[in-house]
Amino acid sequence: MNPEFIKNVLSKVDYEVLYNTAKQFGVSLLSSYNNNHLEDEGFLNSVHHALFKIHIMEGSLTCPKCNISFPIKDGKF
């Protein structure tokens, strides 16, 4: 895990969406975070897991903002 990379990604994602999606997959994240959390290795590891270690093979991905649904087949959407 590259902490600087995770911090950079966090600055670009909608954390509320990440939190709610991770929760659906049983991944525990803080409901919100602040700059102090960006120095917490445990927090950064949890975010890394939520972003890069969950692999969906079949199903769909629905955007919570616009409600557009994207099919996932063989791990690709």
Please give a structural write-up.
There is one protein chain. This protein is α+β, with helices and mostly antiparallel strands. It has one domain. The protein contains three helices and two strands. It is globular. One of its GO terms (molecular function) is protein heterodimerization activity. Belongs to the TRM112 family. This is Multifunctional methyltransferase subunit TRM112.
Number of helices: 3
- The number of strands is 2
Q: Termini separation (Å)?
A: 25 Å
Rounded radius of gyration (Å): 13 Å
Total separate domains = 1
Order of helices and strands, N to C? HHHEE
Percent helix among the residues? 25-40%
Q: Residue-averaged pLDDT, rounded?
A: 93
Major β-sheet annotation: 2 strands, antiparallel
How are the strands ordered across the major sheet?
A: 1-2
Strand content: 5-15%
Helix/strand/pairing category:
alpha+beta
Global geometry: globular
Low-confidence stretches: none
Keywords: Methyltransferase, Transferase
GO biological process, one term: tRNA methylation
Organism: Plasmodium yoelii yoelii
GO molecular function, one term: methyltransferase activity
Write the layout of secondary structure elements.
Elements: H1 3-10, H2 15-24, H3 41-52, E1 58-62, E2 69-73
Helix pairs in contact: 1-3
Keywords:
alpha+beta, two-stranded antiparallel sheet, 2 strands
Quick summary:
With 77 residues, the chain is of the alpha+beta class.
